[in-house]
Design brief:
By secondary structure, the protein is α/β, with parallel strands linked by helices. The protein is 41% helix and 15% strand. The strands form three sheets. The protein has a seven-stranded parallel beta sheet, sandwiched between helices. The chain has a two-stranded parallel ribbon with strand order 7-9. GO terms for molecular function: aldehyde dehydrogenase (NAD+) activity.
């Protein structure tokens, strides 16, 4: 299989590139000029410099590809336009380039549970639920899906919707491991707030299945990890245990967490530094639940997640230490 990965230098992109190369597939990685490709060291691939916001740069990247895995996007931005320009309109530019290529490569789009917004503690989201994003990132990911499926008469399109992803190379959850290292375990008042998590290699497995399965085009699939959802407190406990630490519990009210996040955003605006705490993260942590069901992927594609979450957290902790991130 000839496969293009946009956003190949990111957390999920690195793992996907490794898996494709291990299968013997021909891997092309679209990376922004000067973009960090250190995670791809040792992975056989062809690099193409380009940017999803620059349509002309996409044409040589999609030429001759059988599958395009579209992972490029932004998770942080100062304005709604920042998210829409990259996550939504970037998807449109890529689809236009794929249509112009003339040979109907399959598009596997990395969506997000954020497009659906929070769930309730008692009912996980299913794919048939309407989009109800609560912030700009989720709004842009919902729009990216709408745009991608609007090309369904010209391209075979399928969407993977992961919840919170964990595993080595992940920076989104690194904050909680750093807190444990500093002797702190956060406990948010008003919980528990269940979270569906999934190992990065399980997300890769589902995306590879969607790239080839005949029932995948035209469908979106949640990618849920095995077992019951966890809480933030349980994730921290597993991380601390993996690190051999016994942090003290610091209890925060929603009001205090929101105030700290607002202050952190103020520091970020003044200094230009992106701090780990921000109002977006605070809103995510204070939502009643972020859960989704993986039943559709199991029913239509035969997909079963294979990595236990406790082991995923342990692997992450060990890798962070090895890399000097902790």
């Amino acid at each position: 299989m000839r496969a293009l990965i946009t956003g190949a230098g990111g957390f999920l992109g690195v793992w996907l590139a490794k898996a494709l190369a291990a299968r013997g597939d021909a891997v092309t990685c679209l990376l922004r000029p000067g973009g960090d490709a250190s995670g791809l060291a040792g992975v056989p691939h062809t690099r193409v410099d380009g940017d999803v916001t620059q349509p002309a740069s996409l044409r040589p990247a999609v030429a001759g590809q059988d599958v395009v895995f579209h992972l490029a996007g932004v998770r942080r931005g100062a304005t709604r336009e920042d998210f829409m320009r990259v996550n939504a309109e970037g998807t449109r530019h890529l689809c236009d380039a794929m249509v112009a290529a003339g040979h109907r490569p399959r598009l596997v789009l990395a969506g997000s549970l954020a497009a659906m917004g929070p769930s309730t503690p008692t009912r996980p989201h299913v794919e048939e639920d309407p989009f109800h994003p609560h912030e700009w990132y989720g709004e842009s990911k919902a729009e990216a899906e709408r745009i991608a499926f609007s090309y369904a008469d010209r391209l075979p399109v399928t969407v993977t919707r992961p919840p919170r992803i964990i595993g080595p190379w992940d920076r989104e959850n690194l904050t909680f491991f750093k807190l444990a290292q500093r002797g702190i375990r956060l406990e948010l008042a008003g919980g528990p707030r269940p979270l569906t998590l999934v190992d990065v290699e399980d997300v890769v497995d589902l995306m590879l299945l969607q790239a080839e399965h005949p029932q995948a085009p035209g469908e979106a699939f949640f990618c849920a990890g095995p077992g019951a959802p966890l809480t933030l407190e349980q994730v921290q406990d597993m991380g601390a245990q993996a690190l051999g630490l016994h942090p003290r519990t610091v209890r925060l009210s929603p009001r205090v967490l929101t105030a700290l996040a607002s202050a952190a955003d103020g520091v970020s605006r003044v200094t230009g530094r992106k701090l780990p705490l921000n109002r977006k993260l605070a809103r995510q942590l204070l939502a009643p639940a972020w859960t989704c069901s993986g039943a559709k992927a199991e029913r239509l594609l035969g997909f079963h997640p294979r990595r236990g979450l406790e082991d995923s957290i342990r692997r992450s902790a060990e890798w962070y230490r090895q890399q000097g991130w902790l």
